Each structure stands twice: as structure tokens, then as C-alpha cells.
Request: fold
Amino acid sequence: MGLVGPGFVGAHHIDAVRRLGFVDVVAVAASSESSARAKAEALGVPKAYGDYQSLIADPDVHVVHNTTPNFLHVPVIRAALAARKHVISDKPLATSADAARDLADAAARAGVVHAVTFNYRGNPLVQQAREMIAAGEIGDVHFVHGAYLQDWLLQPTDFSWRLEPDKGGDSSAMGDIGSHWCDLVQHVVGQRIVEVLADLTTVIGTRLKPAGSTEAFARASDAAREPVAIRSEDLGSILLHFDGGAKGCLSVGQVCAGHKNGLWFEANGRRASLRWKQEQQNELWIGRRDGPSGILPKDPSLLVPGAARYAHLPGGHQEAWADAFCNVMRDIYGFIAAGRSMSEPRPPAFATFDDGYHSACVVDAVLESHRRGGAWTKVRAAMPVATT
Ligand SMILES: NC(=O)c1ccc[n+]([C@@H]2O[C@H](COP(=O)([O-])OP(=O)(O)OC[C@H]3O[C@@H](n4cnc5c(N)ncnc54)[C@H](O)[C@@H]3O)[C@@H](O)[C@H]2O)c1
Reply:
């Protein structure tokens, strides 16, 4: 594999792929030769390229990972597809539904494997919840709610390219983390979001941008800063309608003190409820009306087989974010190594460019709803959800 954009999440792509044991990490490409060399040395990667075109042209690279800032996703992915390389892109696939649609179509034409790392799908208890709902264990789901809250952009001195529309896209909180939540609940519940009503807010309207670039979650030095007006939202409340009849509600924000990676969802069905919290990801709450509610721990001996295969340690041994990320890579690379084509069934933690396109449609609809003063707005009709 070769990776373009070795920043915060790029290092975790490399770590996850290395843990598979059958993939060579060949090269990284960064925005300059010197930064690429420094990153390659720090990550123990043999080759370093100062531009993504050279990495894509390298015949040793069969799979291109894209972990660049959002505005570079389209050119990097287009170039990789033109060279007929498999592509694993981080989310959001693109900063608009139109651009994401173009990439999904180009990937289909190229006939390669294409994936988007909606990595929370790779958690064993997420798969347990999905299988329980699919088997009807909690009955028809009528309400899906939850949140994705963080606090790393709470201060005016906190800054990221995510807040600059030319680099991150028009949406910040929704595109960056709301996209994860929406993909996750659709995947788990097996219903698609078809209509949204959004109220978005920019809590920090002026930020102090550091002179140099800052990687995600890194602290900028107190060196020269310039005030910048912020247009994209850092907080949002969104009502949801699902195609299976469920109603939903999402709170999303990057300015909520004390919340580090506070993703959680709950699904309420006619017989029972399920709740999963990313920050306590080894527990699944099962809520019952006519019996005791309880916690199902991540113990492979207690999980259905389809979920147990995502757990690699016995009960009581905690698994976490990086393990779920590795599970996603195992599903994708297993598919590539078996020589499968995208028309064949895929394992569940493997989200495709079609899923990335649908996610971009939801983000677009959220922005449009807000622009229309909080009007119900239809999500552009999309391809069917990839559930298997
Ligand atoms: N799946 C997840 O949980 C998750 C987590 C974080 C980020 N992401 C996504 O991953 C992507 C990267 O986010 P990040 O937080 O790692 O950002 P980052 O800023 O930490 O890293 C981006 C990297 O891209 C490099 N880069 C910039 N221009 C480049 C160019 N022209 N060619 C090659 N490299 C270039 C930067 O130098 C930097 O190293 C974003 O799309 C983001 O949405 C996903």
C-alpha cells in the first residue's frame, strides 16, 4: 500500500494495515519531499514522495490510501482511479454530493476496489447490534437518536483546516463527525436517512489562525496568529426521517467541553432498545420494559458469530478504536486479496464509495435545510445501502 497525506489519521491507516501481516507498506506522499521524508522515517516506510502523482505511478503500490485534507480527496482519488489502483479513502469521500457521485461513478468504471473508512462499523458490538436488529430481536425500530460531540475546537485559538471551506468543505461538524454518526446508525439499523431538518450554529465566529499548519488534535504554538471569520458550523441539532419509518435526532458539535470522542447512538424498537457508546465501546446496553435491562459485554463467547469475528480478545480484555480500525482494513484487504469484484457481497465493516456518496447527500441536505431556515429537506435519492 501507499498512503497520501501522512497526518493524524494516516498513521493509524498504516498501523492497521501493518497488523494484517500480509500487506507491505511501501510509500508515503506528503505535500513536499522534505515532509514526506520526515514522515516516512518516523513511520518506518521505505519510500517518500513529495507529490501524490509519483506515489500513484509507483508500480509497487497496488492500493492507494487517501488521508489528505478533504479538498484534496477528489484529485488524489481521481488520479489513483485513472491508474486503476484500488482506493481506500478516509471520510468524507468528497465535500459535495456531486463530487462524491463523480468519484463513485469513476471507481465503478475503473473496476477497482473502493472503500471509505467509516471505521466505527468495525467494532464488534456495533456488529452485534446490527445483527440483533436484522434478526428482529428488538422489534421494528421507531426511534434512532444520539450524538457525536467533541471539545477540541472549543477555544478561539483552536484551529483546523476543517474550518476553512476551501479545504474542509462548507460543513465542519456535520461533514467531519456527523457523517460518521449517520453512516453508523444507517448501517446498524438497516434504514436510510431520507429527510432532515437542521439547525446549525457557529458558536466561535472568529478564530485565531496559527501561522503554520496544524495537524488534527495537535496544539498550535502561540506564535503569530491572525483573526479569521468562521462560516461553517461547529454545532448542530438535526431531526431525521428514515426510509423504514423510524424518526431520529442527532446532536453534533466540536465545542462541547468534556466530550472527547463522544459518539453514541440508541435505537428503540417495539420490544427492546440498544445503546452503544464509543467511549465505552466494550459494552452494549439492552433496554427492556418487561424484564431487567442489562449490559452485554464484548465477550466473543456471548456474541453472535458475525460479531464475534470482529473481537480478537476474550471477555474482560478491552478492545478499542485502533482495533476497530484494523477490523475495517481486514474486511477490505481480505476482499482485495481474494481478487473479488465490487459486484460480489462484501463483509459488513467495508463501506464503499456508494456509502460515501450517500453520506455526502445527507450532509448536503443538512446544509440545505439550515439555509432554508430549518425546513424538512429530502436527501437526494441514492444507491441501496451496502449491508453485506
Ligand atoms: N476515520 C476517522 O476517524 C478520521 C479521523 C481523522 C481524520 N479523518 C479524515 O482523514 C483526512 C485527514 O485528516 P487528518 O485529521 O489526518 O488531517 P491532518 O491535517 O492531520 O493530516 C493531513 C495530512 O495531509 C498532508 N497533505 C496536505 N497536502 C498534501 C498534498 N498535496 N499531498 C499529500 N499530502 C498532503 C498534510 O501535510 C498532513 O500530513 C480528512 O479527510 C479527515 O476527515 C478521518
